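Checklist before submission:
- one chain only
- standard amino acids only
- sequence pasted in full

Submission:
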Amino acid sequence: MEPILIYGFPLGSSMGLVAALEWLRQPYRLCRVDMLGEMREPSYARINPRHETPAFVTDQGRVLTENMAIASWLAARDTERRISFDPLSPQADRMRQLMAYVNTGFTAAFSPLWAALEMQTPNPAMQSALRQWGRDNVVRRHDRLEELVGDAPFLLGDHPTLADGLLIGVARWLDFHAVADRDRWPKLSALRARLEADPAVIYATALESGESSPAGSGACTGHVALAEVIERYGTPRP
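Returned file contents:
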């Protein structure tokens, strides 16, 4: 069977994994999940008890969660090295370093901003404090990533890799939360522009937006309904 990526909308970090699957060009399927609705339903816990996306059903029917675990699974099967490197090479070490930074500190910096936005019972004073804390964190993390970005077109050379996929799924949150002008970080801004113009990212963004038939690479063999994924691959109910 083809693996299935369970990706979230709106503005899910999983958008970048859809792009990575397009770059990989191996058959896969998708399952689109409303993070403000379906993902919060009790039944979704059978896929991920933490009620988060992304999740990934492997070609053996096992469910993986967490971006880094899914990226590692893809890298291990990237025999043509389209989105990764020889696992013992310096480039692979560098890729894992950048992915770890994006997946931890860079992504986590936005957490206070999301917490303020999604607060069930409004608390203006707390929300204001969360927003200020979040903005400060995001700016600092962007400063650090700007220092890590080299002079190549993409994070690790002349073509995008898994590291670029993880980055582009999250980097757009800077604009959504109106933290700062992206041009404050020239290298990151130029990298984002190149990724946003990439056909795989355009395809992934169109799918996330709900477009019914955007043009992709042909690697995606179709969508699967969430109910079917839960029934076939979710942890059985107690």
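Reviewer check: Residues 18 and 204 are 6 Å apart (CA to CA).
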